[in-house]
Amino acid sequence: MLKFSAIMLDGMNYAAWLFLVAVGLTLIYGVMRILNIAHGAFYAIGAYVCASALGVYYGAGLPEALAFLAMGVAALVAGVVLGLAVERGVLRFLYGRDEVLMVLVTYAMFLILEDAVKMIWGVNSYFVYQPYAYFGFVEIGGLPYQVYDLLMVVLAVVLGLGLWFWLERTRMGRMTTAVVADREISAAMGINVTRIFATTFAIGTVFAVVGGVVTAPKIAVTPGIGVEVIILAFAVVVIGGLGSIPGAAIGAIFAGYARALCVHLAPQFDLFAIYAVMAAVLAVRPHGLFAKTSGRKI
To answer: Does the keyword Cell membrane feature in the UniProt annotation (predicted)?
Structure first.
């Protein structure tokens, strides 16, 4: 019973984390057709910004309960500033170019940002465990479990629903959907496609930064943490289908529980679990579970 509870809880928590780090990647690809390799660097910057912000916050002797507000503000500010800087400063000059070129450009941005992180924060590890320990434990199915991990699941659900509401129920979201369908016709109808791209990239970057911010209290923040993240995020969006928000959620659930099962039942296969799921899905559906078929333009 305890092992079953552990698998269910760990799978849910890991799926929530995977969704947070992957949904921004699939959103950017779905709207802009850019496979953003720099997404992993955005995650790493989010973790470092969180560590720095909390260091200043706790150093000032401010109430510990409000530290989570500081984390949220840091994630929003860092994500918007970083996303708009990259989109306005680099990507807007390359729209309409081949997708392979965009991959190379974002990979170059990833390398540049990785070095920038080392120049700004150095190569030493940062530890900010206080938010993770603040809420303590709760017993579920006879198993003590960190409340912080459960709150991460709640955050992933809330942000996922918020993204769905923005896309389906707001004017900007409907214009974004129109751009996804056909950017040329959307531009002809008066939609500011450039503005949609900038907004989309900023939102996708905020999701990556949020993933780093909420993970920072759980790990040692060290250089290179963005490398594994971009690989895992890519695996998740490939499972669900590139450009599909529901696909990112389902892909995260599949990958999260596959890893939890291996961790508790067959630890020797832990490293291969997510990639095995990806291979199995692609063998049946080469474009992912929720990929939309599109006609070739002539």
So the answer is: yes
